[in-house]
Design a protein that fits this description.
Elements: H1 2-27, E1 35-38, E2 41-44, E3 47-55, E4 62-70, E5 73-80, E6 83-94, E7 100-105, E8 112-118, E9 121-124, E10 127-131, H2 135-149
């Protein structure tokens, strides 16, 4: 019978160790990079920034815009030389097929527009914007900077 008392003393210690391990492992999990399922595919929700020029109907110059795509939310802002002008920012939600955006905060855009997202580019209402960091984006931003300096 002495062999029974020995394991009984170890059971609470083993239970406490198992509980501490479980808590430590649970604390290490992070939902920031959680997978999000959309239209039968699995993607990781991240933020992607695009830049581009958009022709404006009532003036001869093009607007320089920044597009941020985060999950199913699109935010469009206008560059004003060295800063972002948030006064005319539009925010919208993509549909499940990611082919149309409905603008929930109207600025430069209102209502809804068609959207096309391909590797390295996004098109909204027939205007194409390239991913930041690409050679095209760097060239565009350099031209914008030169125009602001003159």
């Amino acid at each position: 019978m002495t062999s029974i008392t020995m394991p009984m003393k170890r059971i609470p210690a083993l239970s406490a160790l198992a509980l501490a391990s479980l808590i430590a492992l649970t604390g290490c999990s992070d939902d920031a990079g959680a997978d999000v399922s959309t239209a039968g595919s699995t993607t990781t929700e991240t933020s992607t920034e695009y830049v581009g020029e958009a022709s404006v109907n009532d003036i001869d110059e093009n607007e320089h815009r920044r597009i941020v795509l985060e999950g199913s939310t699109i935010t469009v802002s206008e560059y004003e030389c060295n800063e972002i002008d948030d006064s005319d920012t539009s925010v919208g939600q993509l549909n499940e097929a990611r082919s149309q955006v409905v603008w929930t905060q109207e600025g430069s855009f209102s209502g809804s527009d068609t959207v096309s997202i391909v590797d390295g580019a996004i098109s909204i209402d027939e205007q194409t914007y390239v991913e930041s960091g690409s050679d095209q984006a760097k060239e565009l931003l350099n031209v914008r900077q030169q125009n602001c300096s003159s």
